[in-house]
Structures are given as C-alpha cells and as structure tokens.
C-alpha cells in the first residue's frame, strides 16, 4: 500500500463543532479515512474516545497506523456505516462523505478518469458490482437515467448511447475518452472534465451512496445523547440536499448551522477538495450534556 495521503477538510471547524462534547464522551467517526479529523479531535479533547468506521479495509489500516499514539482511545471497525449499530450512547457523530484523496489517486481502484485503471469504483473492493459490470450490463435507458439522476448530466442520453455503442469497457480512461467525445471541442477542454459527472453517477450507484446516507440520517440521531452533535460534510448537491432536508425536518434535532459552513479562500487554495465541501451541524434535542 502506498502512503495514505488525505488532507482533512474544514478541520478547525470540525474540531470547534465538537467542543460541547463532554470530556469523557464518545464520538463516532462514520468515515474515518486516514484518521485525519479523528486525530485532531483526539488531540484537542484528551479524554474523548473515538469509534472509527470505514468500509474500505485499506483506510482502516491507514487510520490504525495514524492513530496509533491514541490507540487506547480508539476502536476501529471495518464496515459500511449502514451496517453499524452502536452499543453505547454517543456524544458526537462525524460523517465526511465521499472518497479520500488516497482512494481517488490509486489507479487500480478505478475512481478517477485521470489515471488508467480497471473501472472498479467500489469503496469496499471485497464485495458488490464494479462500475464496469454496471455499464456493461444496463440497457441504454437505464444508463441514461442513472447518469442524469446521479450525475445531473445534461448530455446523459447521448453519453448512454455512445457507451452502449462502444462497450464492453474495462478501463477508466477508455470510458472517459468516449464520454469526452460526446461534448463539443470547446467544452471538452474546459475547466471541468467532461467525464466528471458520469463518473460521479457511477460511483454513487456502485456504492449505493444515496441509500446508505438516507439510512444514516434516519437512524443516527437516535444514537446521540441529548445535546449530542451530528456533523456532516458533503461534496455535491445531491448529498447536501438530503442532509439539509433531513436536519430541517427531523424532530429529534435542532440545527446549529442554518447555512452550511464552507472553506475559506486560504483552504480552497491549499486543498482543492475543500472547494465543494459543505458542513452542516445539528444537536440532539434535550438537556445539554453534563460533564
Ligand atoms: C472523505 S474520506 C474521510 C476522510 C477522513 N475524514 C480523514 O480526515 O481522513 C471518506 C471515507 O469514507 C469512507 N466511506 C464512504 N462511504 C462509507 C460508508 N457508507 N461506510 C463506511 N465508510 C464509508 C470511504 O471509504 C473513505 O475512506
């Protein structure tokens, strides 16, 4: 495994968001990745404990290594957060959605159109259908609908038609090349790569991302003790809309943020991923935590 690299987004805002957690509280990090946010929380709040989840076994190895200095306060579980049920009340829950920079830049994981690799895109490479299986199996209408719904891609029908004409596909760059050909040349070389939205759609479906997010938003508030904090970082409008709606309508929660917290200009320059990050925070209703 190469060195795990991932710069956590909105880190200082995450750390301050959990300031009200009691000193011996437990925070569940549903998407621990390389343990970036978790290590900052463990440093800032010297008695809290963290339960860390990740469906990617490689991320769990990286997080364990990174968090070794705090190992007595950390419990790692390699699982999808949709399959998790806590056995203790939680003072905080953190969710940092999507893929890590490490996953994105590992060619063999197949997440990026920038690196030639197998069209895989599974966050947990030990189970489920790959992106190649998916696009080689679906019919043209199903493909167009998927690309439109989860990629918000205007050219979904044209892209689906070209995919069907040119399949089977096995590699990321072959697929990206065919998608780019669906765009007029001046857009093809624009700021956003033409394959961005289709790749987003495929990744969302391969990993069942919207369903597991909906499930987590429905169940996790009841895992919190009164006054407990739930913070979610999303990276595109399909995720953020769900988080916003859920925080607004959930009778168990009070919103701490009414507008999402976004990165400042300095962070946006340092960390490209932060440009699309939106953090929303809410608090479980009831008495405030007692220390
Ligand atoms: C953006 S990274 C998290 C980075 C982390 N906050 C840090 O600071 O290092 C997202 C991580 O969440 C994991 N992930 C995404 N969806 C998941 C799910 N449904 N269940 C468990 N882990 C998930 C991914 O495998 C990835 O490692």
TrEMBL record:
InterPro entries assigned: RsmH, SAM-dep_MeTrfase_MraW_recog, SAM-dependent_MTases_sf
Top-rank lineage group of the source organism: Eukaryota
GO BP, sorted A to Z: rRNA base methylation
CDD domains: AdoMet_MTases
SUPFAM superfamilies: Putative methyltransferase TM0872, insert domain, S-adenosyl-L-methionine-dependent methyltransferases
Entry's Gene Ontology cellular component terms: cytoplasm
Cleaved signal peptide residues: none
Pfam families tied to this protein: Methyltransf_5
Molecular function GO terms recorded: rRNA (cytosine-N4-)-methyltransferase activity
Keywords from the named record: Methyltransferase, Plastid, S-adenosyl-L-methionine, Transferase
PANTHER family: 12S RRNA N4-METHYLCYTIDINE METHYLTRANSFERASE (PTHR11265:SF0), S-ADENOSYL-METHYLTRANSFERASE MRAW (PTHR11265)
NCBIfam families linked to this entry: 16S rRNA (cytosine(1402)-N(4))-methyltransferase RsmH
UniProt family annotation: Belongs to the methyltransferase superfamily. RsmH family.
Protein name: Methyltransferase
Organism in which the protein naturally occurs: Paulinella micropora
Taxonomic classification: Eukaryota, Sar, Rhizaria, Cercozoa, Imbricatea
Record gene name: mraW
């Amino acid at each position: 495994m190469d060195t795990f690299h991932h710069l956590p987004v909105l880190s200082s805002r995450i750390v301050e968001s959990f300031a009200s957690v009691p000193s011996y509280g437990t925070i569940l990090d549903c998407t621990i990745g390389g343990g970036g946010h978790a290590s900052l929380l463990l440093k800032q709040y010297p008695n809290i404990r963290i339960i860390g989840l990740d469906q990617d076994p490689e991320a769990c190895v990286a997080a364990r290594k990174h968090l070794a200095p705090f190992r007595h306060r950390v419990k790692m579980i390699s699982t999808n957060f949709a399959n998790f049920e806590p056995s203790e009340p939680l003072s905080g829950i953190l969710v940092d959605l999507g893929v890590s920079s490490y996953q994105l830049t590992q060619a063999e994981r197949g997440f990026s159109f920038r690196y030639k690799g197998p069209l895989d895109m599974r966050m947990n490479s030990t189970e489920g259908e790959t992106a190649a299986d998916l696009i080689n199996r679906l019919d043209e209408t199903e493909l167009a609908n998927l690309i439109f719904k989860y990629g918000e891609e205007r050219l979904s029908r044209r892209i689906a038609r070209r995919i069907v004409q040119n399949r089977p596909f096995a590699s990321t760059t072959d697929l990206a090349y065919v998608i780019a050909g669906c765009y007029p040349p001046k857009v093809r070389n624009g700021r956003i790569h033409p394959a961005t939205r289709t790749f987003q759609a495929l990744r969302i479906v391969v990993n069942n991302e919207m369903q597991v997010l909906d499930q987590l938003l429905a169940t996790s508030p009841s895992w919190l003790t009164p006054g407990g904090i739930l913070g979610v970082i999303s990276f595109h409008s399909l995720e953020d809309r769900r988080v916003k709606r859920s925080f607004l309508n959930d009778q168990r929660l009070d919103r701490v943020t009414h507008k999402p917290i976004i990165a400042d200009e300095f962070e946006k320059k340092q960390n490209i991923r932060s440009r699309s990050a939106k953090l929303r925070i809410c608090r479980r209703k009831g008495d405030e935590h007692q220390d």
